[in-house]
Amino acid sequence: MYNGHQSFRKILFGFAFSPKLNINLLETIRIAHFFNAKLILLHVGEKTKKKENEINALLQEIDTEGLPIDIQWKEGKPIKTIRKACDEFKIDLLILGALQHENMYRFYVGSIARKLTRQVSCSVLLLIRPSEIRVACNHLVVNGLNAPDTANTIANAFYVANTLGAKQITIVEEILNKEIHVDVEDHRSLKKAYIIKERLKNREESRVRKIVGALPKIYTQSIKIRNQSIFGKRGYSIGHYAEVVRADLLVMNAPSKSTIFDRIFPHDIEYILSDLPTDLLIIRN
């Protein structure tokens, strides 16, 4: 059932003074313009005249006309400080400049990103492919998991797709291999496994079609919609798929709050965060 989507009216960008600050800032401001949002720039660390001059100089080089921008400086531990700032400013979307496969500047990736995605009360966008010249966001891949938050995530994926002008959304239903319950030992068992797979695919696709069918036509009429069922390990499978089809944005349910069990056995989101295939939007209901 369609219960509406979130609107990203307040965006917070947590930034560090890394080599990619300029391009991450440019991409963030571009996104804020698309969503007609107020932008808060937050640096966790000491405020110095040098840092202040640097961020102001960067902002002067970027078109910020009509965009409300507020720069905040807070000292403390990154995770706790960012989490409190998201609550304090009632943030709808937290943007972090994630760096893929880099060793020196990993301030907002790795364990920090994993903890933030679990602890903040808003949605999170991890940028790994910011560009000085806008690269059109044409194809979104979104999870179609059989989970309570999935309908909300899919609704928000269509909201984002329409806002950014995307042309296609692929909804991926990851099905665990253990659901087949057949040991393939001969031709007969192979045929049985195939039949069960088809039934599972039809079941999942029917469930997702109902979710999409409940959305307002204005959100779906101009977008090509595709369903894709994948058998495999959740998180790893959809991340690999997004990479193979060269998706511009991967949209996922937010992970649950961290427990001791989660620290021992990785969740689906852990596989994606460990090797981001593309920009990742995590929707918090």
UniProtKB/TrEMBL annotation:
Q: Which family does it belong to?
A: Belongs to the universal stress protein A family.
Q: Which residues form the UspA domain?
A: 51-126
Source organism superkingdom? Bacteria
Give one Pfam family, short name only.
Usp
* Protein name from the UniProt record: Universal stress protein
Which InterPro entries does the annotation name?
Rossmann-like_a/b/a_fold (IPR014729), UspA (IPR006016)
* SUPFAM superfamilies found in the cross-reference section: Adenine nucleotide alpha hydrolases-like
